[in-house]
Structure formats: C-alpha cells, structure tokens
Design brief:
GO biological process, one term: protein secretion
Pfam families: Bac_export_2 (PF01312)
Number of helices: 3
CATH architecture: 3-Layer(aba) Sandwich
Protein name: Flagellar biosynthesis protein
InterPro entries: T3SS_substrate_exporter, T3SS_substrate_exporter_C
Strand order of the largest sheet: 1-2
Distance between the termini: 52 Å
Largest sheet: 2 strands, antiparallel
Shape: globular
Number of domains: 1
Keywords: Cell projection, Cilium, Flagellum
Structural class: alpha+beta
CATH superfamily: secretion proteins EscU
C-alpha cells in the first residue's frame, strides 16, 4: 500500500530597502506551522505572495537577515518586478 504524505509548506520572505540594503535579504523563513503563520501575517498586511518552489529551494540555505547571493539577483529581480506589476494593477 502506498502512503502519501502531505508536503510541509515552506516559506521564505524577502525584504529590500534601496537606501539601506546592498541587496534583498531574507527577513523571515519557516516550515510547517511557522510557514502558515508567516503567510497569515503577510496576508493581513497585504504583502503579495509569489510562489516559486525552485527559487525557494535555491534560497533555503540563506539565513534570516542575510542578503541573497549575487547568482540569485536575476531571479529575485523577476520576483520584485512581478510584485511591482501586481501592486500597480490594484492601485
């Protein structure tokens, strides 16, 4: 008999302040219940959610408050561009 396990949700939250930060950084991350809590807080604050499992896996080793490595700049720039466009649609 096959057993199907529900995959645990994983979340990584990014932040970027162009005046203070050299690059975007991880501001929160979690799995399971912590991931659910991060998503709930983001939803309450109207923070856009972007889902990309591959990018999340690439960023999994980055600790909270660490900036993203240069090799991920392009991928993260695409995420921020998507969020910017999404925000523009709802103004």
């Amino acid at each position: 008999m096959k057993r199907f396990e529900k995959q645990r949700k994983e979340v990584i939250a990014l932040g970027y302040n162009s005046q203070d930060d050299e690059a975007p950084k991880v501001v929160a991350k979690g799995k399971g219940l912590i991931a659910e809590e991060i998503l709930e807080i983001a939803d309450q604050a109207d923070v856009p959610i972007y889902e990309d499992e591959t990018l999340m896996q690439l960023m999994d080793e980055i600790n909270i408050n660490e900036k993203i490595p240069e090799d991920l700049y392009q991928a993260v720039a695409e995420v921020f561009a998507f969020i910017y466009q999404t925000d523009k649609k709802y103004e």
